[in-house]
Amino acid sequence: MSITDNTQPDDFVRAVEATLFAAEEPMSAEQIAAHLGFGDKGAGQVRPVIEQLAAHYEGRGILLVERGRRWHFETAPDLAHLLRREKEELRRLSRAATEVLAIVAYHEPVSRAEIEAIRGVQTAKGTLDVLMEAGWVRVAGRREVPGRPVIYATTPVFLDHFGLGTLKELPGIDELRAAGLLDPVDEDMIEAVLGPVNTRKADERESDPD
């Protein structure tokens, strides 16, 4: 059950590869195993094959990448421009939508009241609707408190769009500032959004034995 440039991959490897290639959406190891008739318990057999395939495609024109524990093929970033016939119009968010998206990403799951407490202003329903229509934010259930408010979280589409494997890869405020991605007028809002996150990261670093 191996794959190299000098050997013919076996049927199981080829089946996993074909499944991922034909999939309309990213698939988890559990989904691939179920599709191939192994059930959820077959995920343990599928994962090492996916990792072998990912290594096989590394450095090629297409890559096998993981986003939110789901895998899919995508064009190598340095070649993407060759496949664009027209310049893609970037989805531009309003300042309010950008703030809400950042709060959801760094504090999920989070309710509207919690979002408003961090922003210091009311959040229009349309703002969350825009983020959900983009596929970046989803309803994640209800908080088990009086009133049972709806809570929101990000989606695998959000991770994929921003090139993140998991939410742990979200940058901190120092990283945003160093990269020149932080407008001075946004610093107060970003500090409010990321303050607890940066404090937690600092505590994790101090407690890390390495």
TrEMBL record:
Q: Which GO biological process entries does UniProt record here? A: cell division; chromosome separation
Cited SUPFAM superfamilies: Winged helix' DNA-binding domain
Mind listing the UniProt keywords for this protein, alphabetically? Answer: Cell cycle, Cell division, Chromosome partition, Cytoplasm
| Key word Membrane present | no
Q: What is this protein called?
A: Segregation and condensation protein B
Q: Does the keyword Cell cycle apply?
A: yes
Lineage, opening ranks: Bacteria, Pseudomonadati, Pseudomonadota, Alphaproteobacteria, Sphingomonadales
Which Pfam family name is an example for this entry?
SMC_ScpB
Which InterPro entries would you find in this protein's record?
ScpB_csome_segregation (IPR005234), WH-like_DNA-bd_sf (IPR036388), WH_DNA-bd_sf (IPR036390)
- Top-rank taxon of the source lineage equals Bacteria
